[in-house]
């Protein structure tokens, strides 16, 4: 719980410290796109020490559009021998259930996980406990968006640059989980 007498920035700092104290895992996905039919093509999960717990390309049930490949660099050839989601999920699930999961724009990653489940006719039955670092960083940064009437959102790459974090946002899952971890730790030390 954050203290309502603190400034919004200090509330974000306090929340970051509380999250780190719970020994979270960090997750990021790369996908075939952004729409309702899209699915995961790469996923990475790291622990709070920055150790990779799981990292894999995922063979989707559909081709990866060329425009999407230009963003993250993942092609159909690269995923050809990768495990399909149902196989990968057997390894991923135990790493996430009953854990606090930090992701930057977690709503997207959660939606993509559910959509990928649906594409493979798998029931989504595990309630996962996500924390959205996008929102925490927005409050920490403290730039107001009068149109949305909330804190302004920034991309992970921009947030990292604004905080002076040297890790690049490579639009690859493992690099993005490491940057997410560094960003949460940066906020907690402010």
Query: What is the N-to-C succession of helices and strands?
Result: HEEEHHHEHEHEEHH
Name the CATH superfamily classification.
Ribonuclease H-like superfamily/Ribonuclease H
CATH class: Alpha Beta
Low-pLDDT parts are none
Assign an overall shape: globular
Give a short account of the largest sheet.
Answer: 5 strands, mixed
Helix/strand-derived class?
Answer: alpha/beta
Number of strands: 7
Tally of separate helices: 8
Cα radius of gyration in angstroms: 17 Å
Write up this protein.
This protein has one domain: Ribonuclease H-like superfamily/Ribonuclease H (Nucleotidyltransferase, domain 5), CATH 3.30.420. Helices cover 44% and strands 17% of the residues. It contains eight helices and seven strands. The strands form two sheets. Strands 3-2-1-4-5 form a five-stranded mixed beta sheet, with helices on both faces. A two-stranded antiparallel sheet has the order 6-7. The radius of gyration is 17 Å and the shape is globular. It starts with 7 loop residues before the first helix and ends with a helix. The mean pLDDT is 94.
Based on the model shown, name its key terms.
190 residues; alpha/beta; Nucleotidyltransferase, domain 5; 5-stranded mixed sheet; two-stranded antiparallel sheet; globular
How would you summarize this macromolecular structure in one to three sentences?
This protein has 190 residues and is an alpha/beta fold. 44% of the residues lie in helices and 17% in strands.
Give the secondary structure arrangement, pairings included.
Blueprint: H1 8-21, E1 25-31, E2 40-46, E3 52-57, H2 66-72, H3 76-79, H4 85-96, E4 100-103, H5 106-119, E5 129-132, H6 133-141, E6 144-145, E7 150-151, H7 156-162, H8 173-188
Helix pairs in contact: 1-6, 1-8, 7-8
């Amino acid at each position: 719980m954050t203290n309502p007498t603190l400034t919004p920035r200090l509330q974000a700092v306090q929340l970051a410290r509380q999250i780190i104290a719970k020994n979270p895992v960090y997750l990021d996905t790369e996908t075939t796109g952004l729409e309702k039919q899209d699915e995961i093509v790469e996923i990475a999960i790291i622990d709070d020490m920055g150790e990779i717990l799981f990292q894999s390309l995922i063979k989707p049930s559909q081709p990866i559009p060329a425009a999407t490949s230009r963003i993250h660099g993942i092609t159909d050839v690269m995923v050809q021998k990768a495990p399909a989601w149902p196989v990968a999920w057997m390894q991923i699930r135990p790493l996430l259930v009953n854990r606090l999961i930090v992701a930057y724009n977690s709503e997207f990653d959660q939606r993509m996980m559910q959509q990928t489940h649906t594409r493979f006719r798998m029931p989504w039955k595990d309630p996962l406990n996500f924390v959205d670092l996008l929102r925490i960083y927005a409050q920490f940064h403290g730039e107001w968006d009068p149109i949305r009437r909330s804190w302004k959102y920034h991309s992970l790459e921009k947030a990292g640059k604004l905080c002076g974090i040297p890790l690049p946002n490579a639009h690859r899952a493992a690099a993005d989980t490491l940057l997410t971890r560094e960003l949460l730790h940066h906020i907690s030390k402010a």
